Amino acid sequence: MIVQACLNGARPRDFHPRLPVTVAAIVADAVEAVAAGAAELHLHVRGADGAESLAPAAVDATLAALRDRLPGTLIGISTGAWIEQDDDRRLAMIDGWRLLPDHASVNLGEAGAPAVVERLHRRGIGVEAGLASAADAERLVRLGLAPLALRILVEIEEQALDAAMASADAILAVLARAGIRKPVLLHGFDATVWPFVARAARQGFSARVGLEDGATLPDGTTAAANAALVAAAVAMMRRV
């Protein structure tokens, strides 16, 4: 069980005053998050214009800066299809990385996900297989991609808590029926962040928090930065 810090995601600059989009800001936030108890990092690399990017220059510069300040900390990045908006270009970008993340997340609901999973695996990058629905889990099983995954991300977007929990139940049921025993990282989004941190702790799963998933603390107040969210999650995991 770990707490992973998800630093920025696809959030716009005005989502939070401390949303890190420059390399310097990402590194500063990452250092604070690790000090607060984050075992790993997940981030969306940003280009010089602040937009999400998989360009080798942006990925290499970000990873180099992070590893200089946080040697030994596992670093993961997103490969979301919306970042490059072309599956062939996305694969070409991955091929061009000189510095490799420890792992990268792949959304199984995307048409190009199987090729991305295979390309990451070929390059020696761990795969976080992102499942947002039972259909995604069934696709993972059907295509035989689970053996290539470092872990399973059960990532729930529904905002109604009952529906969100039911969606997680359905995903986990598909994995159980298929005998998939990969580590699970469970996380919610906005309204469901903290209920899923508590559920992850109860069930022995890992969790993640950060400005990608939500900006509020368990008491409903806005967090000062990613480190405050991480500290609250670590405390909750220990209590539960």
UniProtKB/TrEMBL annotation:
InterPro entries: Aldolase_TIM, BKACE. Pfam families: BKACE (PF05853). This is 3-keto-5-aminohexanoate cleavage protein. It comes from Benzoatithermus flavus.
